[in-house]
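Onboarding guide, step 5: your first structure request.
Type a short instruction followed by the sequence, for example:

Predict the 3D structure of this protein.
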Amino acid sequence: MKIFFTTALLFLSLVMSARDVARGYRGFFEIDGSLTSWRVADSYEFNPTSGIKYHNIHRQAFGEVSFATSHGYQFNPRFFLGAGLMGGYSGIHDGWFLGTYLHARTDQTFGRYTPYAEIRTGIVTHAEGGLYLSPAVGYRFNFGHRTNINVGIGLTLRHTGGEDTTGSFYYNSQGDLIHITLGKDPIMKPYATLRVGIDF
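The system replies with structure tokens like these:
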């Protein structure tokens, strides 16, 4: 028990030694986990008289995991601007996607606390749409060294086109039907996102 409390106090003392981000080059390596949901149907049939009929309609969660790296310039302790590349796997179309984005971020220091806010916008090769927008807020764990740990939460928004459709059909790379989503596509489909990584 004594070792646990000693370790915890040491950790807190390191975290509490907050410092501003230095001006100059800055890079990030991160992993994102995102989650959303759609109303889906397991199967469908087409009737020339009544049209398409869907079977076993229910709500289903879809996730994706991606790795990202961005690099740019820290203009002052409060403002970073850079560009990045990302790649990951999407559960909704059972396939991989790639993307590129602009990355703007502000780091703040309030006593020993070091929160941040950021926004990323770019283009991805994703089945739900090409436009990517991801605002997030988080915390930078500063250990008194050049490298910091960042943990953030936010939204990943994908532009779906806002088409007035009742069903969207998703196929895998082999051309097999894997998902039928129902309802009008939103203009921007939101994913809840957890982001963890390092900056250096």
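Each response can be followed by summary notes, for example: The longest strand covers residues 51-76.
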